[in-house]
Every structure is written in structure tokens, then in C-alpha cells.
């Protein structure tokens, strides 16, 4: 029954509706003292009057419930309709208090339950406004009763005392509720800051400090994801191990700092080239490039078969070889050798990388500045220019 009322697929709406049901229960709760009072004839109102009042209350509440349940309030700033509900309940409470005059002491607690209900979303300012509305609402009711409806000799002082007590408790409740709202906001802010810090930490833990590319640890986890996806969807993917040629000479000639600059410049340039290849539709899916270690890089090409991967790496090789990278020692030309391998169903990451590394080794051995694949029949692409 409850599962029909509260949708399981929408946790936020489910939470709002559960609160709604709590509101219904609060209404019904106040019937507990009223029913025996009616039974023993303690109230001046008859059963029909009380039943009419509670029926109106339930109808209003069910209407609010349906508005939230159907999702009509989803786009509103206050999808729980908290403020309209609280102020409707305030009017209802005043009517119930008037109708059950003899049980007034108990019924005044309705106002406290209203303020407590406000904890589900009122702001500090809204709590102040609500306190003012409760006090002035009750004062208005008393004024109406005494001067227009049924003035009663001597009861005015008693009523003034009640109003004073109500004002004090309402202001005090508004203060406490505001404090709780403040604490909750601070907690929510702290939680958000922690979440942000954690996201930043995770991001920096996944990045290589020098180049800003994914680091080896993160690359391995991405490869793990790719492997799982390939197994799930039977989709191909390929990798390429890329190693800069004669990089030691750059360090030896120009110093380590310039070597670092070359690594950074190469990373930025390669990323730009891969993005351009992806944009023009050469690649089936967005590639990922990361620093595998030292002057070695790993390229992951999702949804890409061996031939296409080799063609893509070859294009990258040609553009790197014809481009000079700006460093503090002036523009420096560079090239890389690469080994490309397509994932074979069932193989491990270590085996895939080993095959790419073997192809890379062959590319280095055959003179560098070339990209080799692992498929025997494939003609090695690239040339030593
Ligand atoms: N500047 C700089 N150099 C690095 C970094 N990491 C590794 N290296 C250097 O990269 C060089 C790699 O040298 P080798 O493995 O001999 O390779 P290579 O000179 O590129 O020769 P081949 O790969 O055979 O073409 C070493 O001198 C390392 O010290 C780094 O983060 N910054």
C-alpha cells in the first residue's frame, strides 16, 4: 500500500511524501484529546462541527499530497509546498482552537508542531515570520471572540496570560529552530567543502605533476575500466606505448629543466592533436593519453581496432616530427617511436602492454620515429625522416 503511495524510483519525492504523511498523522494526533472530550460532552461544539473541521484538514492535506505525488511541484522552488502547507495548517489550527475552546490549552500545542514541521526547510527569516504570524493569528482570534462573537466576563485576563505564554514559547521555539537551521547549514557547507576537497585530492592523485596528464596509477585503473567495458559490450579497444626518441640527449645538451619543458610541450601538443583527430571523426571515441613514466606515454583508444589505432598514432607521429616545441633553449624538434596493440578478448592488461612494448622495441630497433603494430600482416607505418 505504502509502496503505491511513495515512488521507489524517486528518493527525493519519496522523502517529501513521507513528511507529508507525517503531517497527516499530526492532524490525526490532535483528534485523540478531542474525541473523549466530545464523548463526555465537554466541548461547546458538536461532533458534526469537529468532524467537518478535520475533514477539511484531511482534504487539504490529501490535495497537497497529490500535488507532490504527481510531480506537479517538482519544478517549484519549494517542491514540498512547505510554506503553503504550514500557513494552511495555521489557519486550520486557529479554527480547531476556536471550535474546541474547552481544550484550548492542549490545542495551543498545534502551533509548536507547526514550528517543528518548519525544520524540514524554513529559513531563519521564515521562522521569525511564522512566529509573528502565530502570535498575531492567535491574538486576532482572541480579539474576534471577545469583541464580536461571544464576549465572556472575566476571561479576558486569563486569555491575556495564555497569549503571553504562547508568545514566549513561540519566540523561544523560533530562536531554537533558527539555531538548528544555522547548525544544519554549517554542517551542509562543511560537507560540501569536504566533498570538494576530496574531489580535488582525487583529481591531483590521478594527475602527473609535470605534464598534467593522467599518471600511471590512474592509467592502469582506466585500462581496467576499458577491459571491463570490452568484456561487457564485446567492443574492441587499442593501446599505444609512445616513447620519445633520444630524449637523454636533450637532457645532456640543454639540462634537465629544458628536458622537463620538452615533456610538457610534447604533452600539450599531443593532447591538442588527439582532440583534433577526435573532432574530425578519425577516432571512434575520445582517446586518453597519460604519462606512463619518464619519457614514455600511454594512449588508450576506446572502440578502436588495430588498423585505425595504428593510423591514428601514425598521424600523431607525423605531426610531432614536423613540429618544433618551444623551450627556454629555443624551439626543439622531437620524435617518438610507438608500439600499438589491440586488446584480445580474455587477455590481461600486463599481456596487452607487453605486446605493445614489444612492438615499440621493434620500432626503436628499426631506427626510431616510427609506429609499429602487433599484427604480423600489418605493414609497419612511419619512417625515419
Ligand atoms: N628532464 C627529465 N628527464 C627525464 C624525466 N624522466 C626521465 N627522464 C630522462 O629520460 C632519459 C631517458 O633516456 P633513455 O631511456 O636512454 O632513452 P632515450 O635517450 O630517449 O633513447 P631512446 O628511448 O632509446 O630513443 C633519461 O636520461 C632520464 O633521466 C623527467 O621527468 N624529466
Description:
This protein is of the alpha+beta class and 385 residues long. The protein has two domains: 2-200, no CATH class; 216-382, Alpha-Beta Plaits (2-Layer Sandwich). Helix content is 64%, strand content 10%. The protein has 14 helices and eight strands. A six-stranded mixed sheet has the order 2-3-1-6-7-8, with helices on both faces. A hairpin with an 8-residue loop joins strand 7 (370-372) and strand 8. Helix 12 crosses helix 13 (306-321). Mean pLDDT is 89; it is low at 377-385. The structure holds guanosine-5'-triphosphate. It holds the Pfam family GGDEF.
Largest sheet: 6 strands, mixed
Supply the number of helical segments: 14
* Computed Rg: 37 Å
Strand content: 5-15%
> Which molecules other than protein and nucleic acid are bound?
guanosine-5'-triphosphate
| Count of strand segments | 8
Q: How would you state the average pLDDT, rounded?
A: 89
Separation of the first and last Cα atoms? 76 Å
What's the helical proportion of residues?
A: 55-70%
Structure class: alpha+beta
Total of domains: 2
In spatial order, strands of the major sheet run: 2-3-1-6-7-8
Q: Give the overall shape, derived from the CA principal axes.
A: elongated
Elements, N to C (H/E)? HHHHHHHHHHEHHEEHEEEHEE
The stretches of 5 or more residues where confidence is low (pLDDT under 50) are: 377-385
Amino acid at each position: 500500500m505504502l509502496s503505491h503511495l511513495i515512488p521507489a524510483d524517486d528518493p527525493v519525492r519519496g522523502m517529501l511524501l513521507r513528511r507529508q504523511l507525517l503531517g497527516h498523522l499530526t492532524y490525526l494526533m490532535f483528534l485523540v484529546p478531542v474525541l473523549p472530550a466530545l464523548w463526555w460532552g465537554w466541548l461547546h461544539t458538536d461532533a458534526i462541527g469537529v468532524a467537518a473541521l478535520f475533514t477539511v484538514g484531511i482534504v487539504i492535506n490529501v490535495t497537497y499530497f497529490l500535488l507532490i505525488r504527481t510531480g506537479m511541484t517538482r519544478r517549484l522552488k519549494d517542491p514540498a509546498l512547505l510554506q503553503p502547507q504550514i500557513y494552511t495548517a495555521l489557519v486550520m489550527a486557529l479554527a480547531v482552537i476556536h471550535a474546541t475552546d474547552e481544550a484550548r490549552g492542549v490545542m495551543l500545542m498545534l502551533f509548536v508542531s507547526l514550528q517543528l514541521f518548519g525544520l524540514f526547510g524554513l529559513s531563519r527569516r521564515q521562522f521569525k515570520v511564522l512566529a509573528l504570524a502565530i502570535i498575531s493569528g492567535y491574538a486576532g482570534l482572541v480579539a474576534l471572540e471577545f469583541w464580536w462573537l461571544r464576549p465572556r466576563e472575566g476571561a479576558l485576563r486569563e486569555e491575556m496570560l495564555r497569549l503571553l505564554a504562547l508568545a514566549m514559547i513561540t519566540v523561544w521555539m523560533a530562536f531554537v529552530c533558527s539555531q538548528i537551521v544555522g547548525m544544519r547549514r554549517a554542517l551542509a557547507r562543511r560537507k560540501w567543502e569536504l566533498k570538494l576537497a576530496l574531489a580535488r585530492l582525487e583529481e591531483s592523485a590521478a594527475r602527473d605533476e609535470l605534464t598534467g596528464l593522467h599518471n600511471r596509477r590512474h592509467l592502469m585503473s582506466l585500462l581496467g575500466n576499458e577491459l571491463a567495458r570490452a568484456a561487457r559490450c564485446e567492443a574492441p579497444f587499442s593501446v599505444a606505448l609512445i616513447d620519445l626518441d633520444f630524449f637523454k640527449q636533450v637532457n645532456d645538451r640543454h639540462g634537465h629543466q629544458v628536458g622537463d619543458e620538452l615533456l610538457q610541450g610534447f604533452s600539450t601538443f599531443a593532447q591538442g592533436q588527439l582532440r583534433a583527430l577526435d573532432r574530425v571523426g578519425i577516432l571512434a571515441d575520445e582517446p586518453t593519453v597519460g604519462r606512463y613514466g619518464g619519457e614514455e606515454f600511454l594512449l588508450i583508444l576506446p572502440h578502436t581496432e588495430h588498423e585505425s589505432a595504428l593510423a591514428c598514432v601514425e598521424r600523431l607521429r607525423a605531426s610531432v616530427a614536423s613540429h618544433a616545441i618551444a623551450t627556454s633553449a629555443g624551439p626543439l624538434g622531437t620524435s617518438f617511436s610507438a608500439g600499438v596493440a589491440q586488446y584480445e578478448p580474455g587477455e590481461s592488461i600486463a599481456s596487452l602492454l607487453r605486446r605493445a612494448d614489444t612492438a615499440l622495441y621493434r620500432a626503436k630497433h628499426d631506427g626510431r620515429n616510427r609506429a609499429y603494430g602487433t599484427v604480423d600482416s600489418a605493414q609497419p607505418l612511419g619512417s625515419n625522416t
